[in-house]
Amino acid sequence: MSPRVAVLGTGSWGTAFSTVLADAGCTVTMWGRRTEVTDEIRERHTNAQYLPGLPLSAAISATSDVAEAVAGVEAVVLAVPSQSLRANLAGWAGTLPREATYVSLMKGIERGTGRRMTEVISEVGAIDPARVAVVTGPNLAKEIVRHDPAASVVASASRETAERVAHLCATPYFRPYTETDVVGCELGGATKNVVALAVGMAEGLGLGDNSKASIITRGLAETTRLGVRLGADPLTFSGLAGVGDLIATCMSPLSRNHSFGVKLGQGLSVDEIVAETRQVAEGVESAESILALARSVAVDMPIVEQVAAVVHDGREPQEVVTALMSRARKSERR
Ligand SMILES: NC(=O)C1=CN([C@@H]2O[C@H](COP(=O)(O)OP(=O)(O)OC[C@H]3O[C@@H](n4cnc5c(N)ncnc54)[C@H](O)[C@@H]3O)[C@@H](O)[C@H]2O)C=CC1
Ligand SMILES: O=C(CO)COP(=O)(O)O
Known about the structure:
By secondary structure, the protein is of the alpha/beta class. Helix content is 50%, strand content 12%.
């Protein structure tokens, strides 16, 4: 019998990952808040708002009733915005199956607590961390649904859980590697969104590839610095969850964070861009939470700090360039 999986969240990545699971042989029930979206997925097998033109597999159904979505599943995949996860889980209290495996697809750090998404799942859902995994890496939804080959990482404190989740989502075009460094994988995924905002700003300001490569590389340095302080393995940041996702997100016009940054660099305000795009650019919220987390452990993250100043305090992107270039010179490795 094919494994049954619930995917909670009907946005771009929740829908794209559902197609990966279906192609890997799973029967998928998606949950979404809006009945017009779940009705469309169930009855017409499309999700026109998030992935226009994509026919969805008959193995994917959808409901706006979470109890119906999770009934009898072996895995629950979470693909809601990072900042709403806690409230969503609290609303589902008593409904989520205790014995299932939980998979986070989210790339953000919670505002106010500095928690990673797997921590929020374990804490609010009262789920044993050994049953929780994160899937992360260079996985732009629109390329995954074209079946462009891509690799990913499934990280869990439990090797067995990581293997099981990798088995559930492995297809000829989606190649999951397993990992036990959950901290490093989640920090890599969340922080690259902030770095992509900075790279996008540089592009919007008309700067070239030297500038963008410098931001990506120094962004990786500060991500690694924070990760190591929080117990991550530095080598994780050279992998798919680090360099891999940084390259994809910082260089691709398909990235919402990158595009958001370009518009900031071109002079639009955060409110104007949010009104225009209506999709999650996780780095906007996470800039502040990652900065607070870094400050709490006395780690210097100048790029994240400057991005937070633009998106939360209204600093001009051009001032960011000056601020970063006029910092006291230092050794590259410290
Ligand atoms: N789109 C992509 O290519 C990838 C996205 N991700 C991550 O996946 C996570 C989800 O992103 P996407 O699906 O792309 O976002 P999206 O913006 O495409 O969709 C977000 C979904 O969440 C729903 N939503 C909004 N507010 C909500 C709330 N308060 N409660 C419940 N649902 C709510 C929306 O209606 C929508 O269905 C993010 O953390 C993102 O960083 C990770 C890898 C790839
Ligand atoms: O995480 C992603 C690719 O790996 C998607 O990035 P965006 O959220 O910026 O579109």
